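User: Hey, my collaborator sent me this sequence without any context and asked if I could get a structure. I don't really work with proteins. Can you help?
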Amino acid sequence: MKSIYVLRHGQTNWNLECRRRGRMDIELNETGIEQAGIMKEKLADISFDICYSSPLKRAAETAEIICDDKIPIIYDGLLVERCFGKTEGTVQDNLPHVGEFVFGKKYDDNIEPWEDVLARAKKFLEKIKNVDAKNILVVSHGVFLKALHFVIIGYDENTDFLSWHLENCEIKKYTI
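Assistant: No problem. I've predicted the 3D structure and written it out in structure-token form, which is a compact way to encode the shape of the chain:
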């Protein structure tokens, strides 16, 4: 048995502005840095063997603050956020909802299909199942971690994917 702790990155200015982040490489703001520091203290009693992080700055910075050079961090491209295509950087309130989690939905703006995000999450989960580690920290992004959550617990075409959400620097533990 191994424990997987999934953590959404700390806050960015674009979170505050309700801008679609996607693959844009946004840094943490002061609050996000503070959130990561607080999470580091909360997790101090857990002996992580390894950390996997998205290479995007907001996740990488969060992982680096928490791990503090005490455990290895592996930056894995599978953990990047869902691509929101041409809508990245735009204010969400003015656009159609691209957070839809609908099978077979095609978007005109080069938005990554939900099935592709789920496939990346499944591939990542299979990869870490084979890692010799008891406690694994995974630092990533809201939509990717939503996909990972449902890959772990199971889903079908009737699943309400909007029923699960992580706030900035919120963590969830799974045992597999």
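In plain terms: The chain is about 30% helix and 15% strand. You can pass these tokens on to your collaborator as they are.
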